[in-house]
Amino acid sequence: MEKATRFTLRVKITVVIFLVLFFLPIYTGLTDNGFYLDLVNRLMILAIAAASLNLILGHGGMISFGHAAYLGIGAYCVGIPAYYGVDNGPLQIFLAVAASGIFALITGAICLRTKGVYFIMITMAFTQMVFFGFVSVEEYGGDDGLVIDTRSNFGSFINIQDNINLYYFILISLIICLFLIHKITKSRFGLVIEGSRSNEQRMRSIGFDTYRYRLICYVIAGCICGYAGALLGNFTNFISPEMMDWAASGELIFMVILGGTGSLLGPVFGAAAFVILEEWLSSLTLYWHFIFGALLIMVVLFARGGISGIVTYLGNRKQ
Amino acid sequence: MTPILKISSLCKQFGGITATNNIDLNINEGEIHAVIGPNGAGKTTLISQLSGDLKADKGAILFQGDLITNMPSNKRSLLGIARTFQITSLMLDMSTLDNVALAVQAHSGHSYRFWQDARQDNQLIEPALYVLKQVGLLGPKDIITRELSHGEHRQLEIAMALATQPKLLLLDEPMAGMGGEETQKLIAILKRLKTGKTMILIEHDMNAVFSLADRITVMVYGEIIATGSPKEIRANQKVKAAYLGDEELQTC
Questions:
Q1: Residues of A with Cβ-Cβ distance to B102 under 8 angstroms
Q2: pLDDT confidence of residue A2
Q3: Which residue, among A160, A178, A161, A180, has the nearest Cα to A169 in the 3D structure?
Q4: Pairing of strands A238-239, A146-147
Q5: So what's the pLDDT on residue A162?
Q6: How many domains does chain A have?
Q7: Cβ–Cβ of A190/B118 closer than 8 Å?
Q8: Using H for helix, E for strand and C for coil, what is the string for B194-209?
Q9: Got the DSSP string for A224-242?
Q10: Do A216 and B160 touch (CB under 8 A)?
Q11: Mean pLDDT (whole number) for A249-257
Q12: A162 CB contacts (<8 Å, ≥6 apart)?
């Protein structure tokens, strides 16, 4: 009974969110208010990135402080080909996912040999290397970044040059990514990842090569976030090293913790709260970062499960 | 009887402390071999070296004729060596069934399966339930492991090791911290499991040791001072002096 109520509140909220997301372009089209569309586009892209981070951070206990690297890599994989006049969408997406996967494989193979705070530091260090790498490449704008003239071209059937189409493209991407992550976390592979977070020594002791499984998980998360990066490049029409600044990685962690680690929709809640609060608070005061910080402390102190945990709590109380 | 495990000149040092010093020991197939000795005698170090959690400084371990001295613990598990931990080591934020099902999963092929729901997978659930039944933990199967009692934790320790279908079971103080009744229950469980399994049992509860063991090895300061049948160990003067004390022996 208790479980059933929790389920329904969760489902209700999910349905409402996706209904709103689905009909938002109609509303903004009627009121001619493109601002909200942009806001939600950014929100959904960050939700994909946060969901991929949640896969390693929430489920796997791998606290990566360098996850924004994949956002940057993905975006540059759209921007650099576009710079040379190559706007082939599938190719750009493939490049973004493959480059992110390779970067995750190489850095993960090294990072995952460390634990705790060393893991955090080394993931951050690798991302800073990429950051400074792109800062130093003058050809692609260096520090200033680069304007992308054309969005990815998926043929006439899916034309994301149109803002509404891009919006639905991102929305469907979000749904597919969440579904994939949901499947992975419930699978045999997902259980190994969860077990390795809980007690790695025991997992090895019962016969798992935990290092390899965690590495594969790290690569999967990187690929998904690289895909989000490709979307980000298309959305902003602009690439810059700032996308993979260490602060950007911190923001992704913020979203995951705010939304609730280890839950499927947590990162979506977190990204939504982040983007909306950022917009709202920064319009109120110049010192909005201060309120942000206080909020995170409150969540960590009083609501460990984040927004997702609060939803569960309310669901339980309602019955 | 043929030895399933051959240990020769096994050593381990922690800084200046010699935890195991030139251990030579053969474990026969099908026996319960108890290792006893005072605290700090190096019993747990020995188990950890056998399970692969600790690297040996020197010496060799042969399991069924294969040299496993430098093999990591996950590979040893796949060969058929399982251990339990003196200090409970479980996946505390997963359910009891999850813990055991994972142990089953580790031994049913690779886990690069990303699609099917593992918690609905009867190939994992059924063997896991069977093992839980064996150790009497079917009741709390859906409870998060953290919430279980100490005695249930100890039972789950054994269930996880059993679920890997080991040929050699290394039990590191399975009765640690248990009450009298729980200990009796566990002795009964281990007696039932005895057929077809070889066990190395570290235990301080002499009642359990003498009612279960076929042979006993006594360790003191990282060295073996005696190996023999329970009868021989009872009669051994060196053992009496070093560890057991006359009083305790008479009660057994």
A1: 191-192, 195, 203, 206, 208
A2: 44
A3: A160
A4: antiparallel
A5: 87
A6: 1
A7: yes
A8: CCCCEEEEECCCHHHH
A9: HHHHHHHHHHHHHTEE-GG
A10: no
A11: 94
A12: none
Distance between CA atoms of residues A134 and B168, nearest Å: 55
With 0-12 / 13-18 / 19 or more C-beta atoms within 10 angstroms meaning exposed / middle / buried, residue A155 is exposed
Closest Cα to residue A39, out of A289, A317, A283?
A: A283
Domain that holds residue A181: 2-318
User: Whose CA is closest to A211, among A124, A108, A125?
Assistant: A108
Cross-chain CB nearest to A205 (options B51, B98, B112): B51
* Cβ contact B116–A204 (<8 Å): no
Which amino acid makes up residue A49? A
CA–CA gap between residue A69 and residue A226 (Å, rounded)? 8
Contact B102, B81 (CB under 8 A): no
State the pLDDT at residue B243. 67
Residues from chain A contacting residue B144 (CB–CB below 8 Å): none
Phi-psi region of B8 (alpha: psi -120 to 50; beta: other; left: phi over 0): beta
Residue pair A267/A256 in contact (Cβ under 8 Å)? The answer is yes
The yes-or-no verdict on residue A3 having pLDDT over 70 is no
Identify the CATH number of the domain in which residue A267 sits. Answer: 1.10.3470
3-state helix, strand, coil in chain A (%, to 5): 80, 5, 20
Q: Confirm if A112 and A62 have CB atoms less than 8 A apart.
A: yes
Q: Where are the beta strands (DSSP E) in A125-212?
A: 146-147
How confident is the model over B186-230, as pLDDT tens digits? 898 888 888 778 999 999 888 889 999 999 999 988 899 989 999
pLDDT tens, residue by residue, A113-122: 999 999 999 9
Which residues make Cβ contacts (< 8 Å) with residue A263, sequence separation at least 6? A54, A58, A305, A306, A308, A309
Structure tokens at A248: 């950007």
The pair of structure tokens assigned to A234 is 């298309």
- In percent, the amount of chain A with pLDDT more than 70 equals 97
Q: What pLDDT shows up at residue A230?
A: 97
State which residues of chain B have pLDDT below 50: 249-252
